[in-house]
């Protein structure tokens, strides 16, 4: 009887590039164009419908730019898709992108250029990643949340079976181009939403950055340019460094540090049918996880107060009627456990820059944390 075994560690190198600029389609265009492979490439621009409506001059300008550089780009007709969480809930969005990729002869040497918030980057990126087993992607994030977090990651996916990001893949974009001018039309609510992720990653990785956010949260909420851009760049860098230097870019391990505050956030998004934006739900989730660390005796009440205070100064609402039913929220723990493969690991923070993991959380513990969170919020607002 014959037998055999072939075994080796497969090393796959991927370059992960993030570029910051003030005008990606003006004099600073060489910052990202020169990073692309040489030659002319077919390119399919896809626009978030909400962004397209708020920025009516952007799409024509982008199309004119690609058309003005025929030695580098051969442009396919632009596609506009619904923005927001609809992009991840409606399977027709992915299908429309796949249809355009097929009809416009977009191949593995072509590019899909995505202009949108995190949900559109996720859904369109997922479509690109499954076409031809992977079409190259250029991300142009158009929200603070996408520029400082969602657009930096290597995840692509959509919601399915009534669960967040149930269907998806890991795929590294060719480049992420963070153009600050694309943020100009954001509402105050959308502007604010991105900075809960900046607070999250600072709590996990950089105590000094958390202190800076404490000092400048009000100014950032008022859109002070220098502080806002600095905070976005630092958050993006911390997320990027975790991915490229953390040793687990495709999340093969059971720990998910960057999901700090997210087990409850994802559940709240579902319970509110998307009425809570992702960043708003994360703000509440960070408060609950800070309270959970106090319940466990690993963090102080002062730490919890600092977390809630900085989020409050950004303008986040930190309580919600869905917290009236802790059992409904506790489902998020079980969904997170299932997502991790059955063994629970929650990353919490004892103090800024000092994370720790727990591997069990029963209902009584979670209910206590929720009540502690709400009590501190009431005290903060009194």
Topology readout:
Layout: E1 18-21, H1 30-33, E2 41-48, H2 49-54, H3 58-67, E3 73-75, E4 79-81, H4 86-89, H5 91-103, E5 111-116, H6 118-130, E6 136-141, H7 144-150, E7 155-160, E8 163-170, E9 175-179, H8 188-193, H9 195-205, H10 207-221, H11 225-245, H12 262-271, H13 278-295, H14 301-314, H15 326-339, E10 346-351, E11 354-358, H16 363-381
Parallel strand pairs: 1-9, 2-3, 2-4, 2-5, 5-6, 6-9
Antiparallel strand pairs: 7-8, 10-11
Helix pairs in contact: 5-6, 7-9, 7-11, 9-10, 9-11, 9-13, 10-11, 10-14, 12-13, 12-15, 13-14, 13-16, 14-16
Task: Explain how this protein is built.
This protein has 16 helices and eleven strands. It is an alpha/beta fold. It has two domains: 18-183, Rossmann fold (3-Layer(aba) Sandwich); 188-381, Dehydroquinate synthase-like - alpha domain (Dehydroquinate synthase-like, alpha domain). Helix 13 packs antiparallel against helix 14 (301-314). The longest helix has 21 residues, at 225-245. It is globular. The termini are far apart. 45% of the residues are buried.
């Amino acid at each position: 009887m014959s037998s055999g075994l072939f075994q080796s560690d497969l090393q796959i190198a991927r370059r992960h590039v993030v570029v910051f600029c003030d005008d990606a389609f003006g004099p600073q265009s060489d910052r990202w164009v020169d990073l692309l492979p040489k030659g002319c490439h077919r390119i399919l621009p896809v626009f978030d419908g909400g962004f397209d409506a708020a920025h009516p001059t952007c799409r024509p300008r982008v199309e004119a730019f690609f058309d003005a550089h025929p030695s580098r780009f051969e442009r396919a007709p632009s596609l506009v898709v619904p923005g927001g969480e609809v992009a991840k809930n409606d399977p027709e969005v992915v299908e429309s992108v796949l249809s355009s990729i097929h009809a416009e002869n977009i191949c593995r040497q072509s590019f899909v250029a995505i202009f949108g918030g995190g949900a559109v980057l996720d859904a369109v990126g997922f479509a690109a990643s499954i076409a031809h087993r992977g079409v190259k992607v250029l991300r142009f994030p158009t929200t603070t949340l996408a520029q400082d977090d969602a657009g930096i990651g290597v995840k692509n996916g959509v919601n399915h079976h009534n669960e967040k990001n149930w269907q998806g893949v890991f795929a590294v974009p060719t480049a992420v181009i963070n153009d600050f001018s694309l943020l100009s039309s954001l509402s105050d609510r959308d502007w604010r939403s991105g900075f809960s992720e900046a607070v999250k990653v600072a709590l996990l990785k950089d105590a000094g950055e958390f202190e800076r956010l404490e000092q400048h949260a009000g100014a950032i909420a008022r859109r002070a340019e220098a502080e806002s851009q600095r905070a976005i760049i630092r958050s993006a860098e911390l997320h990027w460094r975790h991915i490229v230097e953390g040793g687990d870019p495709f999340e093969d391990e059971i720990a998910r540090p960057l999901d700090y505050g997210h087990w409850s956030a994802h559940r709240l998004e579902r319970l509110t049918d998307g009425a809570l934006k992702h960043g708003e739900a994360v703000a509440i989730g960070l408060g609950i996880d800070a309270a959970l660390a106090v319940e466990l005796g690993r963090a102080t009440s002062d730490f919890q107060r600092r977390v809630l205070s900085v989020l409050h100064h950004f303008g986040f609402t930190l309580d919600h009627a869905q917290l009236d039913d802790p059992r409904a929220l506790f489902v998020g723990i079980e969904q997170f456990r299932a997502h991790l493969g059955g063994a629970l690991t929650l990353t919490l923070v004892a103090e800024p820059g000092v994370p720790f993991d727990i591997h069990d959380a029963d209902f009584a513990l979670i209910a206590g944390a929720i009540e502690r969170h709400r009590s501190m919020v009431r005290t903060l607002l009194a």
